[in-house]
Amino acid sequence: MYDDTLLTTDNMCAFLGNVIINTDLNTWFDDDFVPRRVASEKFAKVLVSHTIENEQYQQGDKKFYRETRFLPHHLDFGCEIILYGLHKTMIALYNEQDMSGMMIESENLFNTLKVLFDTLRDSAATSITPSKRNHAVTKRNTNTIT
Question: What pLDDT does 129 receive?
Answer without folding.
Answer: 57
